[in-house]
Amino acid sequence: MKVASLFCGCGGTDWGMVRGFNFLGKRYKKHPLEIVFANDNDKRAAKIFNANFEIQCDTRSIEDVKSFEIPDHDILTGGFPCQSFSIVAQNPPRLGYKDDEGRLFFEICRVLRAKKPKAFVAENVKGILSANNYRVFPMILKEFEKSGYTVSWCVLNSADFGVPQKRERVFIVGIKKSIGKRFFPPEPTHSKKNDLFLSKWNPLKLVLDPNKKIPKRYYFSQNAHEGLKKSNLAMNKGRAQDIETVCNTVGSHLAKVSLNSTDPVLNVNGIFRRFTPREVARIQSFPDSFKLVESESAQYRALGNAIPPVLMWHVTNNLLELIQD
After folding, report:
1. What is the reported pLDDT for 223?
2. Which of 110, 137, 153, 286 could form a disulfide with 172 if both were Cys (CB 3.0 to 4.6 A apart)?
């Protein structure tokens, strides 16, 4: 079966869908899928994608890609930007957008209507549920349904599937109405508490490199520590992680993380440091075989924006059980 990947970034979605890989001692089998098209206008993230997949990422704006240029496919994926949506003051109210990025959601619908794949998987941050006083999300679902799909959605926490990170994301999955099936989310494999039937959350410590191997540039300066003391924040914002449990969400701006930010950091005997890009990749459940190229800032940004491959593997597994026949 063939996959077209929009807003692919560095390829977290795609690695989870089409690769067979090992992570924290578990084997995730290869799905019978092939990527036939990938698109993202972030050229640096695209270079990371290109280093890890046989297909090359198209870096044009998706608005410039004609539908006939996209190969026929069975599954369409896309993590579309959501911060630009608004409610247009009409009667009845309609879904609008505040800037150019807000239009990109409609590009997914355009491709769905033109290519008519069997299914699609869209992903977004949890905040999309409450956008514009909870009015945007129902309209997004309606647009997908009008494109010809039976649509369902769920909130999944990557920690519940063996990823050493607490990361909640909304997944919207549609199956072509003519197929007559509805997607149901995968069952968790891990739990925060001891559970008779589930494994316990994988702790952060399993994916960290020994501190003695970490170069000095990843440690915060003495001035940064002094600034923290003067501000009397006591790490209320900058989050020193407990390595015995899962990590807080890693974001796209880890290259610029400070002790006053909301990004996770590590406390090593009273001295704070940030994660290395490889550690961030592991926190996101990328195996060490995933190649990291480009500058470190580009790596942090791309990895922080990615969908954890292990989580996407579980979503894909459930979807294929419904549509393979």
Report:
1. 85
2. 153
Asked if 239 and 169 touch (Cβ cutoff 8 Å), the reply is no
pLDDT at 230: 66
- Spatial strand order of the sheet with 264-268 comes to 239-240, 264-268, 271-273
Residue 273 tokens read as 């440091």
Given a contact cutoff of 8 angstroms between Cβ atoms, the answer to whether 177 and 206 are in contact is no
| First-to-final CA distance of the chain | 11
Inform me whether the pLDDT recorded for 235 exceeds 60: no
- Joined together, the tokens standing for residue 284 give 């996101």
Strand intervals (E) in the chain: 2-6, 21-23, 26-28, 34-39, 75-78, 85-88, 94-97, 119-125, 149-157, 168-176, 190-191, 199-200, 239-240, 264-268, 271-273
Cβ–Cβ < 8 Å for 273, 219: yes
Which residue is it, tokens 């589930």? Answer: 198
Nearest to 275 by CA among 252, 248, 254, 299: 254
**What residue type is 7 in one-letter code?**
F
Task: Please tell me the predicted confidence (pLDDT) of residue 224.
Answer: 81
- Torsion angle of C-alpha atoms 222, 224, 225, 229, degrees rounded to 10: 130
* 36, 51, 274, 314 alpha-carbon torsion, rounded to 10°: 30
CA distances from 118 to 18, 39, 77, 177 (A): 17, 20, 12, 9
Residues 112 and 119: their CA atoms lie apart, in Å, by 9
List residues with catalytic annotation: 82
